[in-house]
């Protein structure tokens, strides 16, 4: 999805100013190759981790989550491969669209891929957030009503909706347009001809913002419920450990999507609302490049925010705060011992109740006689 900001289709070495153009094009091609390579390798590693976890897991709710997560990584991987190949093809053809694409077939495919691989991660992220919210807040309904085939149908519907939005410009005879940088295709947003030219990009941005808003609401609700259950000790630590792992991953995905896609979606809304104005190709190119980082950062959420990695981070923090932590435990044991001695010095039968869940030695967990 990386594109060059220069509007020159070719490079000429005879004239001095064209050397700057050539260097800019070489820099853009290098950036596209690096982005494509890093994205493919990151998504491949994340997909290997998720498939391995999916084959090993026996918990139904986590299996549904891993199905959506694996689909999200596969979508990002295909997006890097297809869009990156199109970008390299355009640069290899010196951006002469009139020569290699006289019927605008490549431009239509390019624009449709930009929309599809842009909306699909947002839709999948919101579907994952809704699925986790139902699984945490309504576990009985989730286990009985939401079977595995329902999850697969929901997954297919998210891809179908993204594909429908991507195909609308061709279906309504509003083909995608080569942007001013001549390195990518998108909606016709500069000086729209009629209301359809305004509606199509506005529909794209509003659906993306709606998916982000749904993810924020569901993830916030799920996090609050899990935190409340954790404080009240209604669930065992083993039962909520995988919930906490998934919530950490969902919150990270939501944060990455908001930071990467938020500027582009808002910028498209602003350009769609105004009927006329100065061309904003450079600012649009900048926010598009920001959006490409979403497909690069998404797989690292699953690579880094795993339970094993989180446990190592917790142990590292515990080792850094170890002296203060052990001092606090010694103070708690001394206070508890003094309170027990005070209660035993008074009249009344001995108390054999459990002394809480403090990590006390075995000698201190015996009943006081």
Automatic annotation (TrEMBL):
Topological category with respect to the lipid bilayer: Multi-pass membrane protein
GO cellular component, one term: plasma membrane
Keywords tagged on the record: Cell membrane, Disulfide bond, G-protein coupled receptor, Glycoprotein, Membrane, Receptor, Transducer, Transmembrane, Transmembrane helix
Span of domain G-protein coupled receptors family 1 profile: 42-302
InterPro entries hit by this protein: GPCR_Rhodpsn, GPCR_Rhodpsn_7TM, PglndnF_rcpt, Prostanoid_rcpt
Alphabetical GO biological process terms: adenylate cyclase-activating G protein-coupled receptor signaling pathway; inflammatory response; positive regulation of cytosolic calcium ion concentration; response to lipid
Family recorded in the similarity comment: Belongs to the G-protein coupled receptor 1 family.
Protein name as catalogued: Prostaglandin F2-alpha receptor
Species in which this protein is naturally found: Sparus aurata (Gilthead sea bream)
């Amino acid at each position: 999805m990386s594109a060059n900001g220069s509007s020159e289709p070719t490079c000429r070495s005879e004239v001095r100013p064209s050397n700057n153009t050539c260097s800019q094009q070489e820099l853009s091609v290098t950036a596209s190759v690096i982005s494509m390579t890093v994205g493919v390798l990151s998504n491949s590693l994340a997909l290997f981790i998720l498939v391995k976890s999916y084959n090993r897991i026996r918990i139904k709710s986590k299996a549904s989550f891993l199905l959506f997560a694996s689909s999200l990584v596969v979508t990002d991987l295909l997006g890097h491969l297809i869009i990156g190949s199109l970008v390299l093809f355009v640069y290899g053809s010196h951006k002469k669209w009139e020569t290699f694409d006289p019927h605008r077939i490549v431009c239509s495919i390019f624009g449709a891929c930009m929309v599809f691989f842009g909306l699909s991660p947002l839709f999948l992220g919101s579907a994952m957030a809704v699925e986790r919210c139902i699984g945490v807040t309504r576990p009985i309904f989730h286990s009985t009503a939401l079977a595995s085939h329902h999850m697969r149908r929901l997954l297919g519907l998210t891809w179908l909706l993204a594909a429908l939005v991507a195909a609308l410009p061709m279906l309504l005879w509003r083909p995608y347009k080569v942007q001013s940088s001549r390195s990518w295709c998108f909606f016709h947003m500069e000086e729209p001809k009629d209301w359809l030219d305004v509606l199509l990009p506005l529909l794209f941005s509003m659906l993306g913002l709606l998916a982000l808003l749904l993810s924020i609401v569901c993830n916030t609700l799920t996090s609050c419920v899990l935190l409340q259950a954790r404080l009240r000790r209604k669930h065992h630590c083993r039962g909520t450990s995988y919930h906490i792992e998934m919530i950490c991953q969902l919150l990270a995905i939501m944060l990455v999507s908001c930071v990467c896609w938020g500027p582009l979606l808002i910028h498209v809304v602003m350009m769609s609302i105004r009927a006329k104005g100065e061309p904003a190709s450079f600012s649009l190119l900048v926010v598009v490049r920001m959006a490409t980082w979403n497909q690069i950062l998404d797989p690292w959420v699953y690579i880094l925010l795993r339970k094993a990695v989180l446990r190592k981070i917790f142990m590292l923090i515990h080792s850094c705060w170890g002296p203060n932590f052990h001092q606090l435990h010694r103070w708690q044991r001394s206070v508890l011992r003094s309170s027990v001695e005070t209660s035993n010095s008074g009249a009344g039968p001995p108390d054999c109740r459990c002394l809480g869940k403090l990590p006390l030695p075995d000698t201190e967990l015996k009943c006081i006689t």
